[in-house]
Amino acid sequence: MTKSTSTYNIQNIVATASLEKPVPLVKLARTQPNTEYNPKTFPGLVLRVKEPKSAVLVFSSGNLVCTGTKSIAQVKQVIGVVIKQLRKINVNVTIKPKITVQNIVASGNINLKLNLNFLALEMENTEYEPEQFPGLVYKLNEPNATFLLFSNGKLVCTGTKNKQQLEDSMAQLLKNVKSALKNY
To answer: Given 3-state DSSP classes, what are the helix, strand and coil percentages for the chain, each rounded to the nearest 5?
Structure first.
């Protein structure tokens, strides 16, 4: 069997942070053009950032949920943009918000053609219903990650919280798939 490696690219990081002070969402929505706020349908305000392209949910408690970034550096940059916009409405954030990554979504390739029917039978923690969806769902417990695997070897990984977990889960996936394929 040929030696196979996996490659991946981070597509999205979901991170949270707290400004540790209340935010007047109505005032923010009225004064900033890049916002959407409809408290009847959702309690948070959506603030869109052009560069890096992302969206931040801003809650009146001062909690933030940042999505759409591809690195921690971008998350920090986006939160900086939010803090600058808040200064314009006299909300002065004096702390450096602690950023917590909640989820990383990555796409990748394990560079192997996969028989998903076979893998669904050989591997534990899989779901595969080709009539419903062309990918096999594979849940890894350690590190905690969920993969969508496709027959061409392409994949999506979600559930990791840092680059090391992502790399460890990709390595574990490759090991588990190769182990299953020994019986093929």
So the answer is: 25, 35, 40
Residue corresponding to tokens 């409405």:
89
Classify residue 65 by burial, with Cβ atoms within 10 Å: 0-12, 13-18, 19+.
middle
Contact 34, 78 (CB under 8 A): no
Residue 119: phi and psi, rounded to 5, are -60, -35
* Residue 180 near residue 127, CB atoms below 8 Å: no
CATH label of the domain that carries residue 138: 3.30.310.10
Could you say which residues of the chain have pLDDT below 70? 1-4
> Are both 56 and 119 inside the same structural domain?
no
Number of domain units in the chain: 2
Helices and strands counted in the chain (H then E)? 4, 10
Prediction pTM value: 0.90
And the tokens for 89?
A: 């409405």
**Which tens digits make up the pLDDT trace of 98-140?**
999 999 999 999 989 999 999 999 999 999 999 999 999 999 9
